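FAQ

Q: What does a record look like?
A: Structure on top, sequence underneath. For example:
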C-alpha cells in the first residue's frame, strides 16, 4: 500500500520538528532537515504498521498545504 501524507516540517531553534496532520501522534524531531525527513518516513511506516496490526482503520490523507502571500501595510 502506498499513500501520500502531508508532512509539516518546522525549524525550532537549532532542530527540526516534523508531524503528519492526518496521523495523530506521528511526530519526530531531528538535528537536520534531512535527518528529520528520514525519521518521519520511518515513523509513518511504523505508525501505519502498528495500526494495521491492531486492526485500526488507516486514515485517508485529507490535509493539504499551501503557501500564502502575506501583505502588510
Amino acid at each position: 500500500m502506498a499513500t501520500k501524507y502531508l508532512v509539516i516540517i518546522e525549524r525550532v531553534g537549532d532542530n527540526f520538528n516534523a508531524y503528519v496532520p492526518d496521523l495523530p501522534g506521528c511526530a519526530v524531531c531531528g538535528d537536520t532537515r534531512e535527518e528529520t525527513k528520514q525519521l518521519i518516513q520511518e515513523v509513518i511506516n511504523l505508525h501505519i504498521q502498528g495500526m494495521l496490526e491492531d486492526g485500526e482503520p488507516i486514515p485517508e490523507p485529507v490535509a493539504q498545504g499551501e503557501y500564502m502571500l502575506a501583505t502588510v501595510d
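Q: Is there anything notable about this one?
A: The mean pLDDT is 96.
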